[in-house]
Amino acid sequence: MSALHLIRHGAIAELRLDNPAKLNAFTVEMLSALEPHCAEIERDDAVRAVVITAEDSKAFCAGADILAWSELNAAEFSRHWVRDGHRIFDRLARLSKPTIAAIGAHAFGGGLEFAATADIRVMAPKATLALPEAAVGIVPGWSGTQRLIRLLGEPLVKEMALFGRRLSAERALAAGFVAEISEDPTASAFAIAEEVSTKSPRSVEVAKYMIHAAADEDRGAMIEALGAGMIVPSEDKTEGVAAFREKRKPNFSGK
User: Fold this and answer.
1) I need a surface site. Which of 66, 67, 153, 165 has the fewest CB within 10 A?
2) d(CA 167, CA 173)
3) Three-state secondary-structure class, residue 155
4) Average per-residue pLDDT for the chain
5) What is the pLDDT of residues 90-117, one digit of tens each?
6) Annotated catalytic, 29?
7) pLDDT higher than 70, residue 66
8) How far is 227 from 217, CA to CA, in rounded Å?
9) Which pTM was predicted?
């Protein structure tokens, strides 16, 4: 059975695509598995970093399994397949933990959008990136025309989505989409994860919130999360909760 596995390696959580028979293409089951995996990672303070990988294949991820969506009607396709996928990928992108994607082979369509959710990416020399949706009569639906614009820029996204051209590892590196090119992206990604795991987890988390707010990645939630982090330790919050429980008027000190 094809799946998306959550595997623990001490302080590092691995999210591994496992559908090699279909070039690791996303099925409904794989997409559905990703959301609870994200929730589990988010709640576990022992997790310091997340590495996104795929089983050995000719592709890191060929996108979405055509058989999973080709028979859907317009309402099902837009309301469920596209919107659910977009929401779930956003959930991964907005994890408080740092994420690293190991792109060991081609990442097309939804596979590229999946890799784009990571904070940093490592790519094999012969891997390529593409948005081939127009070749089968659809358009990118899991943030290919949104998050990728911020990460790659309009010209490169147009080159892939409109003209069907592939982006090489060298060009992805030059564009800043990948941090490094490696003969063993998975080993390199785990090395990066090990290194970030030695940093202050709170510092990394807050820095990620600040950067996401600046980059308009769920800015409202990021700003409110930062505000909540400032107000919860305050004496005013403690006094307000105590007054509520004791059914009295609070006496705020401003501390």
Assistant:
1) 67
2) 10
3) helix
4) 91
5) 999 999 999 999 999 999 999 999 999 9
6) no
7) yes
8) 16
9) 0.89
